[in-house]
TrEMBL record:
SUPFAM superfamilies: Zn-dependent exopeptidases (SSF53187). It is found in: Endoplasmic reticulum; Golgi apparatus; Lysosome; Secreted. Pfam families: Peptidase_M28. Homodimer. The monomeric form is inactive while the homodimer is active. GO terms for biological process: proteolysis. It comes from the Bacteria. The lineage of its organism: Bacteria, Pseudomonadati, Bacteroidota, Sphingobacteriia, Sphingobacteriales. This is Carboxypeptidase Q. It comes from Mucilaginibacter celer. The keyword Transcription does not apply. GO terms for molecular function: carboxypeptidase activity; metal ion binding; metallodipeptidase activity. GO terms for cellular component: extracellular region; lysosome. Keywords: Carboxypeptidase, Endoplasmic reticulum, Glycoprotein, Golgi apparatus, Hydrolase, Lysosome, Metal-binding, Metalloprotease, Protease, Secreted, Signal, Zinc, Zymogen. Residues 1-19 form the signal peptide.
């Protein structure tokens, strides 16, 4: 009889807990959808500050404004975390053309982040088209030397999750120019990393080992890539050539900051749940989806908690990381200082896939058993809000360094619908007008709800 009573009491308590959770989550969503502020905050960030590439005046303005924003919300702690960041400058607008005899066909082009400039007169050379780094290496120096290497591997449309297509196509931009430089190429042009066919080139960082040779590298639009490839197939080359000119430069590192707001835990002040995105953006537009939406959603999570009167047991931080796009220095510094301060981190959630309709969360470096337990625990309560897809997957560049310095932390990626993200990613189209208010607010509410559950019941 005693055993039955204990089981009945436990079941009753579980029912009451679930009922309380449901009520709190409903309040969270009501606050986000009726009184949400992340959309108007994003408008200010995009329209009054604009592009925020690391080291720029816009980046510093965004730091100052973000700190005041979180102070205005009355979070328990708001502070800056100093970090040295790269200062790469694009310079005057790039230009490019296919030169077919006496005909010049203009090509939309943008320099890749961290690339060097061309000579003042630009580069004009024959083109070698390749689909992979392996193919490039197979051609060897005798073929590549003095040429412009054209990486033209398109997105694989078979992936349902478009981030997978980005991942499998991305090495040609990340590492391709460095490999081409070793083989004596004069320059590199890369097909923009997107499935959409248009005339908007996509920038993004390219990598080179310290001290290694660098060559000018740029991305051309997908329409231009198709045209150039078609001309190559028509055997118009080597009669035709490619020309491009860019004026970028890498200046000495400068001081910048991560911006951090915190609601201090009532029971475990030295245990932390982090939610964040990156404050910096590329310089072609306003950095709306990448990643203005992410940082504004992160601050909104804490604002919602205060608005509904929820006082977390563990400390919850909103972190606006600096320098995700071309160096990751903000994420490295945050992880370093968290370990140095002997903080215990329960979980870190990154939102850096745009402000689209929320679908769920992915967990990095966890077992299938862990995912099963998470689904058993939380799927049913998240399902009415359509944010219940809980899977193994990536987490985020800014929070990734934490796994090396903070044992036990669970790294989580916020996963919105991905179908439109790479239409806008790293382009001049990434502006406030392309963000949907309701989708943005639903994402903020979904993260707040999940953080509430982690705070109450753990992982």
């Amino acid at each position: 009889m005693k055993k039955f009573t204990l089981l009945f009491s436990a079941a009753l308590l579980c029912t009451q807990v679930k009922a309380q959770d449901s009520l709190t989550i409903r309040k969270i969503y009501d606050e986000a959808l009726v009184n949400g502020q992340c959309y108007e905050n994003l408008r200010y960030l995009c329209k009054n500050i604009g592009q925020r590439i690391s080291g720029s005046e816009g980046a510093q303005k965004s730091v100052d404004w973000s700190k005041k924003l979180m102070e205005g919300y009355g979070f328990n702690k708001v502070y800056l975390q100093e970090v040295m960041v790269p200062h790469w400058v694009r310079g005057a607008k790039e230009e490019a053309a296919i030169i077919d005899g006496k005909t010049r066909i203009p090509v939309p082009i943008v320099a890749l982040g961290m690339s060097i400039a061309t000579p003042k007169a630009g580069i004009t050379a024959n083109v070698i088209e390749v689909k992979s780094i392996k193919e490039l290496e197979g051609l060897g120096e005798s073929v590549i030397k003095g040429k412009i290497v054209f990486f033209n591997r398109a997105f694989d449309p078979r992936f349902i999750e478009t981030g997978m297509a980005y991942g499998t196509a991305g090495d040609q931009r990340f590492m391709g120019p460095a490999v081409a430089a070793k083989l004596g190429a004069a320059g590199v042009i890369v097909r923009s990393l997107t499935e959409i066919i248009d005339d908007y080139p996509h920038t993004g960082a390219t990598l080179a080992a310290p001290g290694s040779k660098m060559i000018p590298a740029a991305a051309i639009s997908t329409k231009a890539a198709n045209k150039l490839s078609a001309m190559l197939k028509m055997r118009k080359f080597p009669a035709a050539k490619f020309y491009f000119k860019q004026n970028c430069q890498l200046l000495p590192d400068v001081k910048s900051y991560n911006v951090i707001g915190e609601l201090t835990g009532t029971e475990n002040p030295n245990k932390f749940i982090t939610v964040g995105g990156h404050l910096d953006s590329w310089d072609l537009a306003e950095g709306a989806h990448d990643d203005g939406t992410g940082v504004m959603q992160s601050a909104e999570v804490l604002r919602i908690f205060k608005a509904v009167g929820y006082k977390p047991k563990n400390s919850v931080r909103a972190v606006f990381f600096m320098n995700e796009e071309n160096g990751h220095k903000g994420g490295l510094k945050y992880a370093e200082l968290a370990a140095q301060n002997k903080e215990q981190h329960i979980a870190a959630i990154e939102t850096d896939e745009g402000g689209f309709t929320p679908r769920g969360f992915s967990f990095a470096d966890v077992s299938k058993e862990f995912i099963k337990n998470i689904n058993d625990k939380y799927k049913a309560i998240l399902e009415p809000y359509e944010v219940d897809k809980l899977t193994i997957g990536g987490a985020g560049t800014d929070i990734e360094p934490m796994k090396e310095t903070l044992p036990g932390v669970v790294l989580i990626g916020f996963r919105p619908d991905s179908q439109r993200y790479f239409d806008l990613h790293h382009t001049a189209k990434d502006v406030f007008e392309n963000v949907n208010k309701r989708e943005l607010e639903l994402g903020a509410a979904g993260m707040a709800a999940f953080i509430y559950l982690i705070d109450q019941h753990g992982l």
